[in-house]
Amino acid sequence: MYFGNPIMTFALYLMVFIYGIVIGSFLNVCILRLPLKENIVSERSHCWKCGHELAWYDLFPLFSYIFLKGKCRYCGEHISAQYPIIEALNGVLWCLSFAIIGWEWEAVFVCLVISGLIVVTVVDWRTFEIPFGVVIYIFVIGALHLVYVIVNAAVSKAAGGTGEKVVTDVVEMVTDNGTPYTMEYTRSFIAGIAHAPWYEYVIGFFAVSVPLLLIYIFSKGRGIGGGDVKLMAAAGLVLGWKLILLALIAGCLYGSVIHIIRMKVSKEGRVLAMGPYLSAGILTAMWFGGPILEWYAGMFVG
Known about the structure:
The protein is mainly α and 302 residues long.
C-alpha cells in the first residue's frame, strides 16, 4: 500500500520490518529450544558451541550477525545462517502482509500467525513434531481475532451498517461514444481474514480438524499426524471455514508436488512432515484466499 508520500511509506514499512526481525530473533529461540524442552523465556541466550552467555550487544537481529561476520565473539565458531535467515524472513513476510492486506488490524493478526507458522515449519521439518505450545499460541490469536470480528460487527450495526465489512471498487469505464464514467461494485471476497460473520470462524475450528481427526483415529496416526490436526483446528479459528478448506487443499497440493520432486531428486522416503506444507497453505489462504474464492465463485456466475 502506498500513502502518497514515499518517505512516510518507506518509514512505515521499515518500522514493520524492524519489529519483524526482532520477533524473528525470538522465533530462533523457539525453534532451537522447544524441541529440547528448554525454557524460552527465563534462560539467557548463549552460544551453542562454547556456552558463553551473550551480551545485549550480541543480540541485535541481523546486524550482530553481519558485524560479527557470522562468528561467535567469544569462541570464533561459525554461527548458523538460520539466525539471520529466520529474522529476515519474518521481517519480509510481515511487510508483505501489510502490502497485500493494507494497514488494518487484521494485518497484525496475520503477521502474528505467520510468526507461529515459521516455527511450525522449521521444527516439524526437522523433528516431525509440531510444538503444542505454538498451536496454543495460534489458537489464542484466533480467539482474539474472533473477539475483534464480533466487536467490529457490533460497532458497525450500532452505526447503522450491516455488521459485515464491505469493500467497493471503482472502475473507470468508457461508453461506445467515448464518454467516460465510473462504476462502483461491491467485492464478495477480498484479501485478509476479517470479512465473514463470527460463526464462520467457529465453524472453521471444526471444518477441517474433525475430518482430519477421523483420519488420524482410523489410520492410527499413519494417515495424518496429531499435530497437523491441532494446527488446522487453531488455524480454522483464524481463517473461518471457507479459507481453512482452501488452506488444506493448497497445503496438500504443495506437499504432493514438492515431496514427489524430493523423492525423485534426493531419494526421500514416503513419510513427510505436513506442517510446512499446511503452513504454506494457511499463508496462501490469508494472503490470497479472498481473490481465489472470488475467482472460483465467478466461474458459476453467468
